[in-house]
Amino acid sequence: MTIENNSQTIDHRRLGTAGPIATSPGLGAMSMSGAYGPTSDAEGIAAIHTYLDAGGTLIDTGDFYGAGHNEMLIGRALSQRSRDDVILSVKFGAVLSPDGSFIGFDSRPDAIRNSLAYSLRRLGADHVDVYRPARLDPNIPIEETVGAIAELVEAGYVRSIGLSEVSAETIRRAATVAPISDLQIEYSLLTRSIESNGILAACRELGIGITAYGALAKGLFAGKTGGNRAMFPRFQGENLEHNETIISALGSVASAKGVTLPQLAIAWVAAQGEDIVPVVGSRTVQQVRATLSSTEVELSSVDLAEIDEVLSRTEVRGDRYPSALMAQLDSER
């Protein structure tokens, strides 16, 4: 369904059969805490307020974004807002070293409860709406992780249980323990593996929604290739040169339609089904407004066929993460 707010059409979609109704697109807050370079807290708070003022509700974060900084920033932004107007989606489980690098994942029940205690304090909230492990902990059965979150749901600290970057098999195992609202996973014009590896089919069979991150391909669709992006294989050497030819071809489709490539990319994800909500990372007011403007783009069957024709000519080159991080993705196994 759609709702008019401040002359902006805001799309609302339920996160699976077990989750809340949220706005599409959602706001990804990771980049507000230095993921792609220096940031300003004032700018981040202004971006969050712009999203909420436009009628947006879904804010996605992780307790490890900026080692807690992201949650504190969101807490400050929401301090004068009604908690009922915001849907907070929080990831947990990543273990960091003092230099900020990832050194593992911890989804033991006691660790989950401890992580949530800190998240609630940093967010200034008495509950989170969706709580999910950031990655599958290879040492803890997913049934045990979901069972622990289910106890937090029963206690009122969590409203819905989500998953992130897990395989179809893991999704099915998790769903035997408790209702799952949504799977957060990368899905974009350049990353469509969930269509062929059974993940999307499993989610639809089980009534689980998709919160799709990476709609802008980590900035490729916005012409951003510098900074920390150099660590990603798709931004390196000949891979980047090749991938930019795909970007150029898709840009021509967008130009012919009279829209920007980022608008087209976000609208394409949203057009793949009412059960899919693109979550777009933004850190400035301008970026939030650009993201929300994608709701004004309607893609016809002819448009979608033209896009598919462009993508059928060649494939993106390079993995979506460095090899060490790819090895941590249950969704890629």
From TrEMBL:
Gene3D superfamilies referenced in this protein's UniProt entry, alphabetically: NADP-dependent oxidoreductase domain (3.20.20.100)
InterPro entries referenced in this protein's UniProt entry, alphabetically: Aldo-Keto_reductase, NAD(P)_OxRdtase_dom_sf, NADP_OxRdtase_dom
Molecular function per GO: pyridoxine 4-dehydrogenase (NADP+) activity
An example Gene Ontology CC term for this record: cytoplasm
Entry annotated with the keyword Transcription: no
Keyword Oxidoreductase belongs to the record: yes
Keywords: Oxidoreductase
Location of the NADP-dependent oxidoreductase domain: 26-311
EC number(s) reported in the record: 1.1.1.65
The protein, known as: Pyridoxine 4-dehydrogenase
